[in-house]
Design brief:
alpha/beta; 13 helices; rod-shaped
Length: about 450
């Protein structure tokens, strides 16, 4: 007992004893740091692989994107899952090639959004921590990526080419026309006329009484010329704006080629060949009229044109989320004044005269289209006030203030643009187009 007491009371050897006792946890702590750093390095590499897999699975040129473009609804994308796993494995090298890694991938389309998620977990063998009985360490991670698919759109260009679109395109053009027609024709009729619509000859013979030919002979640009050029320029803008092939398709129509057959006239079939549609705009011309006051000048029926364009838009109207689910847009360019035979339902405050209805656009058929899910973009080219013109003062002036209001009612909210003849119709058309394609898509 005396010797034991001496040993306990002697402090000179405590450091060595404590060091011996702490050696195991010290080695374990150092081993923990080394093993943890090793595991963290492997996890960082696996996380980079997961990031690459998540992004690559929904890239613009990926197989998942191709499959999504063909889908009419939502759902999982099997090809995307397979691709993500392949991308993940392709990123591994060195020690990771022999490490058992559990990888879970989900790729799905919801609305117009592709989402991919990649999760991984594995166990990394330890070295020093085995002293403490820890033979492995768990590591795990996750990565997600989202890609909003481009909006796929079909544009149906509905272009008013009726007589009122024969007005001079600018104030200078109007002045030139008035000067050129100061003497009138056939005994002094229609003196100082700003319109090139009296008369558009269809015989191919130069008609001195044709104000259309007067305009051409005097270098006057009329409004339909500007609209045609604007459509052609828009096709180039659409090509430049596309982010994927066949994102936009376009068809072009007018209200009729001739007054004798005043019905929807197809200038260009619906096509993703935008350059070809642009070339077809050479077919956009003012509606021809065989003689003055033909059919009592009843050549502008918005009702007929809108019903006709509705018939052209066949099938289900989509949301634009894929090539198989295309949004439909009517791109409507007009001055908003109808002139047609409509004995019943004429909305003019003066009513119909012997069945002839001169009215601001009746929006009934616009509503029918919109109820189908079709968007209507309206480019309003105002009907020019001509105070010295008796037709204008008698029939148009009474409702002139309501024309832009009606045109805006026809349009889908936010897709209305008014442009005067002195403004750039081409620029306005491009601006309205860009507004359409940049509008956020509503998804479920």
């Amino acid at each position: 007992m005396r010797m034991l007491n001496r040993l306990v009371s002697n402090r000179s050897g405590n450091f060595g004893v404590l060091t011996a006792l702490l050696m195991v946890p010290i080695i374990g702590a150092g081993g923990l740091a080394i093993d943890f750093t090793h595991a963290l390095s492997l996890r960082t590499q696996l996380q980079a692989a997961a990031d690459a897999a998540a992004v690559g699975a929904v890239a613009q040129k990926s197989a998942a994107m191709t499959q999504a473009q063909a889908m009419t609804g939502d759902g999982a994308i099997a090809q995307g899952k397979s691709d993500a796993q392949d991308i993940f494995r392709a990123q591994l090298s060195g020690e990771l090639l022999d490490l058992p890694v559990n990888v879970q991938v989900n790729v799905a389309k919801t609305g117009g959004v592709l989402t991919s998620s990649v999760t991984f977990n594995a166990r990394v063998s330890t070295t020093f921590m085995q002293v403490l009985g820890q033979t492995s360490m768990p590591i795990s991670g996750a990565a997600t990526a989202r890609y909003e698919t481009p909006s796929y759109m079909d544009f149906y260009m509905l272009l008013d080419n009726t007589p009122s679109m024969g007005v001079g395109a600018t104030a200078s053009d109007i002045a030139t026309m008035k000067t050129a027609t100061a003497a009138g024709h056939d005994g002094g009729k229609d003196k100082s006329c700003a319109f090139a619509c009296h008369i558009v000859s269809t015989s191919g013979v130069e008609d001195k009484n044709s104000y259309y030919n007067v305009a051409r002979n005097n270098g006057v640009t009329i409004r339909i010329d500007v609209v045609a050029a604007a459509v052609k320029a828009l096709m180039q803008k659409a090509q430049d704006t596309e982010t994927v092939a066949s994102q936009f398709r376009v068809a072009a129509y007018t209200f009729g080629k001739t007054a004798q057959d005043a019905k929807l006239y197809k200038v260009a079939d619906l096509s993703d060949n935008l350059k070809g549609v642009g070339s077809a705009t050479t077919g956009i011309e003012l509606m021809s009229i065989p003689y003055q006051n033909y059919n009592s000048d009843q050549q502008t029926s918005f009702d007929t044109a809108l019903k006709g364009i509705s018939a052209e838009i066949s099938g289900t109207v989509g949301q634009g989320t894929s090539n198989a689910d295309r949004q439909k847009i009517v791109f409507f360019v007009a001055d908003g004044v109808g002139d047609s035979y409509k004995p019943v339902g004429c909305t003019s405050p003066k009513g119909a005269s012997s069945g002839r209805c001169i009215e601001p656009i009746d929006t009934t058929n616009c509503t029918t289209l919109k109820n189908r899910g079709v968007k209507i973009a309206v480019l309003y080219t105002p009907y020019l006030p001509l105070p010295e013109n008796s037709f204008y003062t008698t029939w148009v002036a009474p409702f002139a203030a309501s024309i832009p209001t009606r045109m805006q009612e026809c349009a889908t909210p936010g897709l209305y643009f008014a442009v005067s003849p002195t403004d750039g119709i081409a620029d306005a058309m491009k601006a309205l187009f860009l507004k359409i394609v940049s509008t956020p898509r509503i998804t479920s």
